[in-house]
Structure formats: C-alpha cells, structure tokens
Amino acid sequence: MKFLAACFMVLQLLFASEIQSFDFIVEEEPEKLAELFDPETSGFISSPRLPSSRYQRSTDDEEELILGEDNIVLHSYKIQSTITSRLANTMVQTKVENRAKHSQNLVFDVQIPKGAFIHNFTMNVNGITFTSSIKEKSAARSQYAQARARGKAAAILRSNALDMENFKAELNVPSGTKVQFEIHYQEPIRRKLSTYEHIIPVQPGRLAKHLEVNVHIVEPQGISFVHVPNILGDQFTDATTVNKGGKKAHISFKPSVAQQRKCSNCTTTAVDGNLVVTYDVNRDTKAGELEIFNGYFVHYFAPDNLEPLPKNILFVIDVSGSMWGLKMKQTVEAMKTILGDLRSDDKFSILDFNHNVRCWRESLVQASKIQTDAAKKYIEGIHPNGGTNINDALLRAIFILNEANALGMLDPSSVSMIILVSDGDPTVGELKLPTIQKNVKKNIRDDTSLFCLGIGFDVDYDFLKRLGTENNGAAQRIFGNQETSSQMKKFYNQVSTPLLKKLEFNYPEGLVSDVTQSSFQNYFGGSEIVVSGKVDTENVQHLQSIVTATASDAQLILETLADVEGLDEFLNKDKHADPKFTEKLWAYLTVNQLMAERNVAPTAALKRNITKAILQMSLDHHIVTPYTAMLIESPNGEEMMLADSPQDRKRACCPGALTIGQPKPEKPIPAWAPLGSKDPQSVLMGPTAAAVHTGKGSSIHLLILLIGWVLTHASPAQGKAQ
Ligand SMILES: *[C@@H]1O[C@H](CO)[C@@H](O)[C@H](O)[C@H]1NC(C)=O
Ligand SMILES: *[C@@H]1O[C@H](CO)[C@@H](O)[C@H](O)[C@H]1NC(C)=O
Ligand SMILES: *[C@@H]1O[C@H](CO)[C@@H](O)[C@H](O)[C@H]1NC(C)=O
C-alpha cells in the first residue's frame, strides 16, 4: 500500500511536469462545418447508400440498433496488418460520429504491442485532415508552444497489460461531428518456442457498423503452418477465415453486427480481446536464410535438430516478505515444473534470499531425479519474510559458478546462466542500483548469462533490464497474479534449450556496412537470431555469410550464399509485400541496440552521443522513439497537437493512474469509453476550456486532448537469441 501511494505521487509529478495539453480550436462557422460534413466531399463514408443529405436526418434502422446510450456511432473499425518476412505493418482506423445533441468526447484508444514503433497518426475532423510529423522532442514542444497551445489538462494512462502500451487521442467535438482516426505502427514478429506470434488487439469498445481485421502474411521462405486460435470467443468461429498458400496467407475477421452483440438484444459488443495469429516458416538449411532487398540484407538464423548443450543454472529467488501469498505460491508451482524439466546432464542449485542469502546446495549438483526432487521439497518449505538483499544474492550465485569453473567442474560445451526472480528493490545490504550493477559486472564471467524476472510493478524494471542486457541475458516482467506461474514457465522454456554458443556472423568486408549485432553468446532452440545490414546491391551479385558456432559435439562453420536479386521478382509482384521491410528491420534492430547501449553507457558524453544517433534514426526512418514527439497539424499548419511521451521514465513501474492498485491483466479501459465527463458543460468549464473561451465569441470549439507515449523497449537484446 505504501508503494502504491509513492507510485501515485510519481504519476502526479508526471502529470505536472511531463504532460502537455493539446487544446485545439477550429474556428469555423457552424454552416461551414455543416458543408464540410458532406460525406462525399470529405470522403468520410464510403457506402454509396448514404446520400449526402442524409446525415441530418435521424439514422437508418441499423444505426439505431448500434447506437449506444451516448449517441456515438462507430461507423467502422478497421485493422489492416501485413507481415513481410517477419516485419509487421499494422494500421488501425476508426470512423466515429457524435450523434448527440451536445458536444462530447470521442476517444481513440488503441493498444500497441510493447516494442512496436509508431510511425504515423492522422486524423480527419469533418473533412479536415491532420497529418503528423516526427520531430526532436524539444523542437516539437517549442513549435507547439509557439502555435496555439493553451491550458494544462491531460492525463497519463498506462496500459496494465503485460506487453502492451496505449496510444490515446481524445477529442471533444460538437454535435454532428465525424472523425476518422488512423494510426500506423510496425514491429518485427519474434520467434519464440518455434512460432511467430502476431498479436492484434481488437477492441472497438462498442458495436461497429462495419468491423474488419485483415492480416496478410508474405514469407519468401514458405509458410509451414498458420494457426488462429479462437480466443475472442466461440461466437466468432464463423467470423474468422484463414487462407494459407505456399508463401502467402490471409486471415480475415469480419463479424456482423449481430455477431458482435454480447447478447441478441444487447447494445454492447462482445468483441474485446486479441486476434492472435501464429505461424512458422520452412527452413532448408542450418545456415539460415539470407534475404536481400532494396539495399539491405536480413539474415534469419534458426537451426533445429541439434543436441542441446548442457547448462549450469542457478536459480536466485527473492523470498522477502513481499513475496508472501500468491506470488510465492505461483513461484513454487513454476519452479517445480522447471526443476522437473532439467536434463540429466544439467547442473544446478537454488539460492533463496531475503536479508540473508541461503543456498540449497553450496555448489552445483547434477540434475538427477533425486536431486531435483529434493530441490522441489526445499522450495515448498520456504516461508517468505524479511528484506531484499539482491547484491549479496547475485554475488553468491556468481561465486558458485566461478568456483565450479575454476575447479574444472563444468563441461567445456556447457552454458552457464543465472535466473533471478525478484519482486522488489533492494532494502538490505547494498542499496545503490548502479553499485550493484557494477559489482555484478565486475565479478561475473563473460560467458555467463543473467536473466532477470521482475514480478509485479514494485520492482525497478529498468534496473533489471540493464542487469540482463549488460550480462548476455535479458529481463522479463511477470505479473504478480494467477498467471505468474505460467509466465515464468514460458520464459524458462525460451532459455531452457541452448543449442549453440559463441556464435559469430561474418559477411565480406567492403560489401556490407552498418551491420547490427553479429556475435551472440547463445542460441536457444525455438528462437531466431536476426542480423541485418546495408549491402551495396548495385555492385554486388551475391552475398555470402559464414556463421561459426560451438555445438554440443563440434565446432560448426555454416555457410550460405544468396543472390542479391533473388527476391526481387517475388516481392515486386506481390501487392501486399512491403518493399521497405529489410530497411525497417535494420532500423528496428539498430535503434533497439542503441537504446540498450545507451542504457549501459558509462559516461554522460557517450550517452549524449548515442541519444543523438537514436534521434537521427527516428527522423530518418520516421519512427517515434523516447527522444522524439509527434506533431500533428492541420493542412495550413495553424492547428497543432503534440503526441508526447513522458521523458525517461525512471521507473517503468506503474499501471495507469486510473487503475492503480488493481493489476488486471486485461486492458482496463474500453477503447471508446467517454473518459470525459458525461456532461460536456463540465468539460467546458474546466480551466482548459476557460482559456479556449476567451474572446472566441460564438465560434465552434474543438478541444483535443492527445496523449501518446512510447515504451521503453522491453527487450534491448533484440536480435539476440533468447
Ligand atoms: C501517414 O498516413 C497518411 C494516411 O494514410 C498518408 O497519407 C501519409 O503519407 C503517411 N505519412 C507517412 C510519413 O507515412
Ligand atoms: C433482452 O431480452 C431479454 C429477454 O428477451 C430481456 O429479459 C432483457 O431485459 C432484454 N435486455 C435488453 C437490454 O433489452
Ligand atoms: C561521439 O560521436 C562522434 C561521431 O560519431 C565520435 O567521433 C566521438 O568520438 C563520439 N564521442 C564519444 C564520447 O563517444
């Protein structure tokens, strides 16, 4: 509870210092606005059934039926997503109208997978199109301030969902206004546990006259399977179609209004969840697939059928008082499965810590059935209490591994890893996070990977991320709820099968440049390593790569050769293929790598340098990063909004202010819930609107609040096998 209070204060500060307001005024005569409304000139309504004069009359029958109590009509809700060789471009578009007699809020609230890059947002208000540009943060702010900025109202909203962030625009519009919102974002689909999983939140928030989700997959390697689990609900079985060809697939989800209804006479929608598309591609060679297109190459590496390497694994488990109850119960459950899954040639031990550090065994033991059964018993007997001494716990784990290594106990082909499970910041022993980070770095061997699982929001997740990234590992946030156990197991499964170690990706010097991370400590079964770079396609016919790696019984040298024009015919012919997919993948990897480097940069000068590089990348490739903001402008540039993100959130800790203290894994706020007051008058009487009113006589006022922010990137080790 104490933590929650503190967290709330942090949010309040963010409110005060970080959030700009986005009031915005359109001074149009009401009649003029009515003209703009003409669906034909505005291009707003595509249905030819609606003549332009219809809008003022009351709605047709179908619309009556979908009209909520608030008299807002959702004309259409459309999602279009295209995956070109793992690179997904997704567009979410809604067309909505205020049919009430008074002005009220129209809200566009979309969940965006954490790690995705937003690259475009447009808005059309009664025929006026606002377009966005991405600018350096302070430049965007000052440009915005010089325009017509007024007022101070906004709210920060963070999605509570594990892997999602929200982008939210809120618009207070007069009666009869029609608005079209459209957002574009892109992300590579990562391979985990032998599948690519593409998650598309489908949350119209209300019945939509026209609801449609289309996913196109274009994979030059060929698609081995496509699966669309029916998690939106049984009633949508007929609404989903899947067509799979050799290298292409199309998934469509198109429920009728009747299907959308929660019950046959309900006006609420049953569509509220994720459309999940999973697939994998064919793989012929162990050496991976080298794809070259438009001046960039991308190398996908995911060999199978290799003997797993033995692992030396230390579980370091926080058993401080805060773990008491559900979290500990779930952790015990997960650990019992994980221990049962250890292979007999693995070595392991368990450390549990509160203010003290205890070892189940003082040195690594072979994972025989007797030992794993004993370890399970030990875990079951733990009663959490006391403080949190992360520093000593990690140093002890490192010591055990180092000692085993010094004594020659470890198989030369084995992989060493530490898995830290914690739900809070240090409270005992060394408290300074940078010192802990330094201590770990100083003592840990270069070939040891540190994976950090942070349970709940009472833990400095950025710190865990830095620890993981700096030490060949990664961090993962886990919810402290009923899902904890399955999330922990899922994470463990991703790192439980090391197949290769010490991987080096080589390309001919002089032919390629700006290559992303090309050496990796480990490759885990079911994952995929991605390396990308620029290639001089004008002067090169073929590109060769040589991958060297250590397998369980041999040193591997894997060679592949790709024709620079090999994909041209296929990709140029396909109307869905994104001709820039290689460039976007390269930019994505590069930006994430820079962020990870910045995270661990030792000096302020270097940090600044990296910040500059990230900024340049976001401007060049038109993507929103923590150092840029999106400026949204009307055609004449007079009206402006700013989609800003809070700067460098120190703690990526909290769920949104609106849902604080109620960790719900599902999205807490329906996309179209009018978050503003039901009574628009109270909106207009707020301090913000008072400013809007000043000297504006009878003109029409639009008040726009736009809140957008971007993730701190979940996995800095992008492209790293995890
Ligand atoms: C943003 O989206 C709009 C509407 O689809 C489009 O016209 C515009 O070209 C896009 N801008 C960029 C930079 O992609
Ligand atoms: C829907 O129909 C059922 C029975 O036909 C009725 O009991 C219920 O009140 C109706 N609900 C609404 C929202 O009209
Ligand atoms: C910053 O970047 C410039 C050019 O990229 C480089 O020459 C310089 O050495 C860098 N400074 C630091 C402190 O890394």
Would you kindly provide a written description of the structure presented here, covering whatever features stand out?
Its main location: secreted. Belongs to the ITIH family. It is found in: Secreted. With 722 residues, the chain is an alpha+beta fold. It has a ten-stranded mixed sheet with strand order 12-13-10-1-2-7-4-5-30-31. Strands 17, 18, 19, 20, 21, 22 and 23 form a seven-stranded mixed sheet that branches. A four-stranded antiparallel sheet has the order 8-9-14-11, with no helix packed on it. The longest helix has 19 residues, at 581-599. The chain starts with a helix and ends in a 14-residue tail after the last strand. Mean pLDDT is 80; it is low at 1-59, 149-160 and 647-722. It binds 2-acetamido-2-deoxy-beta-D-glucopyranose (3 copies). One 2-acetamido-2-deoxy-beta-D-glucopyranose (NAG) is lined by residues 605-606, 609.
Structural class of the helices, strands and pairings? alpha+beta
Query: Separation of termini?
Result: 35 Å
Nearest-integer average pLDDT: 80
Q: From the alpha carbons, calculate the radius of gyration and give it in angstroms.
A: 27 Å
E-strand count: 32
Describe the sheet with the most strands.
10 strands, mixed
Query: What's the assembly state of these chains?
Result: single chain
Count of helical segments? 17
Major sheet strand order = 12-13-10-1-2-7-4-5-30-31
Helix content: 10-25%
Unreliable stretches (pLDDT < 50, length at least 5) are 1-59, 149-160, 647-722
What share of residues are in beta strands?
Answer: 25-35%
Bound ligands: 2-acetamido-2-deoxy-beta-D-glucopyranose
What's the overall geometry?
globular
Signal peptide: 1-21
Keywords: Glycoprotein, Protease inhibitor, Secreted, Serine protease inhibitor, Signal
Pfam families: VIT, VWA
Subcellular location: Secreted
